[in-house]
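Late entry, evening session. Most of the bench is empty. Finally got around to the prediction I had been postponing all week. Sequence below, unchanged from the version circulated by S.P.
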Amino acid sequence: MAFECNKESKHSNLVEIGKEIVRKCGGVPLAKRSVGSLLRLKRTEDEWIYFKSQDLSSITRGGNDVMAILRLSYNHLPQHLKICFTYCSLFPKDFEIQRFDLIDMWIAQGFLQSTTSNRDNVEEVANSYFMDLLERSFFQETEIPHLYKMHDRIHDLAKEVADWEFFSIIKPEDTEIVPDQTLHASCLFQIDGSSAFPNSFYRKHMKLRTFIYLNGSPFIVMCNSTLERMISSFARLRVLHLGHLQIELLPQSLGGLKHLRYLAISSESVVTLPNSITKLHNLQVLKLVNCDKLKKLPRDIWRLVSLRCLVCKFCNSLTHIPPGLWQLPSLIHLDFDCCFSLKDMPPGIGQLTSLRTLTNFIVGKESFISGLASDKLNELKGLVDLRNSLSIKFMGRARAIGERIPTDVVKRMEHLRQLSVQFEYGTHEDDTGADLIMLEALQPHQNIENLQIENYSGSRFPSWLMFENLGFLLPQA
């Protein structure tokens, strides 16, 4: 952990000191990982000797105290990482933390150092914070990409170092003991009925900046009046996360949270969102996950002028996206993954030239019927900063392409790593050559690593796939 990839030979003078430090860690793997990660930032012999003889000895003279060693690692964190780590005390033990959810919450709370003013760069800064904590062993990777956990002892440390500004409400009785100073709260019990929180709780905690509800159940429905009271009382919220919320209607008062920057809702029962949320002019992140019955988004969503991230995942009833997205100048991430009923993309997507994420791009049947399928596909040309993966789905076949032939639609996307192209399912042959013309325009950049083509019915492959040395054209695939 201290030398990275077995580079001990380059620091042979430190190895013997390191062995003594290992012995002081008492054979506890977590303690050794934590100390090793800390020492990675120290490279001189004097620093290692001081750490061994002063910092470490001061807590191990009376025996091996794992928590004291972990606390020492925390004490060496810079201040901006301390508060980011402490924020994690709001999550329960064994909770799988989604990296991008967490860094979006950090950004919403203003935890980033003020040295950066470029809003396009804030995510990279927040991600560097996360990676720094990961390298220091405050997080552990799981088998699923982007999901991380905290060791039980690390979680204990987070709870220990958290001051009264952070509080987890584990059972209903805890609502009576939440400190007056609390600014960030999580609710980890199932809210059933209207009496979950006493009136005194709402009066004392009007200054809350975070409310995270994580212990929802598909069998328990939260009372409408409870949610209405929460939202109307916590007017200073910056982060509102409602996990597995079972309620059909969200209150119009949601639009009154004028400081809100992060809103995440997971609900299998919500059918629609109140149009009042378009008044949230400071909202940066809107995440709708597993909202299986959600049929539409607010028609005036273009009024969310600060929105940089819009996520709709596993929203299987969502069929259309309202027009006007192109008027959102801050939009960087547009994720409609696993929205299987989505029929088309709104016009103007090509004007969102700052987009880094666009998981799906659908050319709907109406575009083919009106002869505008090529124009629709050409909208992708300006999105040269797209990253990770892009899925292009054709919902019909053009009978005649005319003179508007798309060209080099994705070739300039050098950061794209996965490209999926799905044509309309069917067994009939493409007698007009439309599939061939569309696919000809979709030659990816040579940095592509994964290319998938489904239901292609052309009589031959496009010229770029017929290239003699395809491995040279696409060396990473």
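Two things to note before I forget:
The first strand starts at residue 97 and ends at 98.
The two ends are 33 Å apart (CA to CA).
Will write this up properly tomorrow.
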